[in-house]
Amino acid sequence: MAELEVVVTFGDEQRESMVFLVAIDNSEENFYALRWVLRHYFSGAANPGAVHKLVVVYAKPIPSAVIGIGGLGAVDVLPYVESDLSKIADGVIQKARDLCVANSVDDATFDVSQGEAKTVLCGAAEKYQADMLVMGCRGYGAVRRAVLGSVKDYCTRYAQCNVLIVKKPLNTYSSA
After folding, report:
1. 165, containing H or E segment
2. Is the pLDDT of residue 52 over 60?
3. Disulfide check for 166: which of 33, 45, 67, 100 has CB 3.0–4.6 Å away?
């Protein structure tokens, strides 16, 4: 597979410094997107002289949303769910940090914000004045996206920046 050259332009101007906001969760697809951004925008060979900023954002679910409506005893489990969600967030951020350091990006910003992924990501794009929001593609079908909703669909409509969806090559998806 041939490597492609990526040149980012906005209107008539080509930017030498951009803010990339990468959405991350525990999925293989979003880590592939992070690796893709690191390879295409943050390696010295990719953009000599360019100084980009990388912001990695993890949207931590609200504990009550994970439990559901609740019932008797739901309040008792809330602290345990919160603790587990925090441990998951810490693990995901550490994995992303390790990937960045392995690619010689030591100055990335890591942001864990609690809430629905779509609102967290759009809010972070505005907060960090991102030039591009980068997300992985899970390859869900139209019916599943319609039932579950799509974070990518929402972000492409409402984020205050460009949105890049990075797809893994088809031969790298597992047959599960």
Report:
1. strand 162-166
2. yes
3. 33
